[in-house]
Amino acid sequence: NNSYQLSSVPLQILFYVNGIYYIFYFLASLGMIVYKSEAFSYPDDFLAPDLALLFIMAILEVLRLYLGSKGNLTEEEAPLGLSLVITVGSVILSVYFLVWQTYVLKADVIINAVLLFTYGLESVLKVVAIAAFVS
């Protein structure tokens, strides 16, 4: 009978903070896309994909945080591992918004850099937690 608590408190806190931050990130990105579409000549065929990717990213984020939290709290490596895999997709999307979206503002750079930092930190803690669960 294992009486040790293996679930990671720092990881759970980070999931919570990340969830709050992502709401801000999503609204800020959405706001900036709207702003850019007004302020710049935003080609219509670029506006839709940028918006679609932002919404896909939001769905991934909800899944990622849900699976990560569930895996951490139930001390199961499978949901946590899946969350880690989804993080790869989230990182790619964040890099897209950082580098490849139609117009990149300084604010885009800042909010994506913060997001990528939290992803990195979270991923390290996930790997540590998974290692603790499987050992």
Automatic annotation (TrEMBL):
Keyword hit for Transmembrane: yes
A Gene Ontology BP annotation from the UniProt entry: non-motile cilium assembly
Annotated localization: Cell projection, Cilium; Membrane
Membrane-topology descriptor: Multi-pass membrane protein
Keywords from the UniProt entry: Cell projection, Membrane, Transmembrane, Transmembrane helix
InterPro entries registered for this protein in UniProt: Uncharacterised_TM-17 (IPR019184)
GO annotation, cellular component aspect: ciliary transition zone; membrane
Keyword Flavoprotein found: no
TM spans (from-to): 13-35, 47-67, 79-99, 111-134
Protein name: TMM80 protein
Species of the source: Chionis minor
